[in-house]
């Protein structure tokens, strides 16, 4: 069984969102078997900063769909978009 790494862009609802708190909530929302292998931050515009976690998931779990769905359900998340995916 292999693993897949995906960089996911998570946009908060507003610039006022505490990114450290949002990062913790994203980590705690991960489905079983998935883990975060680091976060990057991307300044989008007007003080809005996107979180870019790199998520590692087992290859046999159906890809990143469960992670995307869980991240979308986290409070104060506006949108979730997979930026790139690759095998490790």
Tags for this model:
single chain; 88 residues; alpha+beta; Alpha-Beta Plaits; elongated
Characterize the structure shown.
- By secondary structure, this protein is of the alpha+beta class.
- It has a single domain, classed as Ribosomal protein S6/Translation elongation factor EF1B (Alpha-Beta Plaits), CATH 3.30.70.60.
- The chain has two helices and four strands; from the N terminus they run βαββαβ.
- It has helices at about 20-30, 65-70; strands at about 5-10, 35-45, 50-60, 75-85.
- The protein has a four-stranded antiparallel sheet with strand order 2-3-1-4, with helices on one face.
- Strand 2 (about 35-45) and strand 3 form a beta hairpin.
- The chain is elongated, with a radius of gyration of 13 Å.
- The chain starts with a strand and ends with a strand.
Structure summarized in a few sentences:
The protein has helices spanning 19-28, 65-72; strands at residues 3-12, 35-45, 48-58, 77-87. It is an alpha+beta fold and 88 residues long.
- Determine the strand fraction and express it as a percent band: over 45%
What is the CATH level 1 assignment?
Answer: Alpha Beta
- Overall mean pLDDT score? 94
Any idea what the CATH architecture is? 2-Layer Sandwich
Overall shape: elongated
Give the arrangement of secondary structure elements.
Elements: E1 3-12, H1 19-28, E2 35-45, E3 48-58, H2 65-72, E4 77-87
């Amino acid at each position: 069984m292999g693993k897949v790494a995906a960089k996911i862009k998570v946009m908060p609802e507003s610039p006022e969102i505490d990114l450290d708190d949002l990062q913790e909530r994203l980590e705690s929302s991960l489905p079983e078997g998935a883990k975060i292998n680091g976060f990057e931050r991307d300044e989008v515009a007007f003080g809005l900063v996107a979180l870019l976690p790199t998520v590692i998931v087992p290859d046999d779990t159906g890809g990143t769909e469960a992670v995307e769905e869980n991240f979308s359900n986290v409070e104060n998340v506006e949108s979730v978009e997979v930026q790139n995916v690759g095998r490790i």
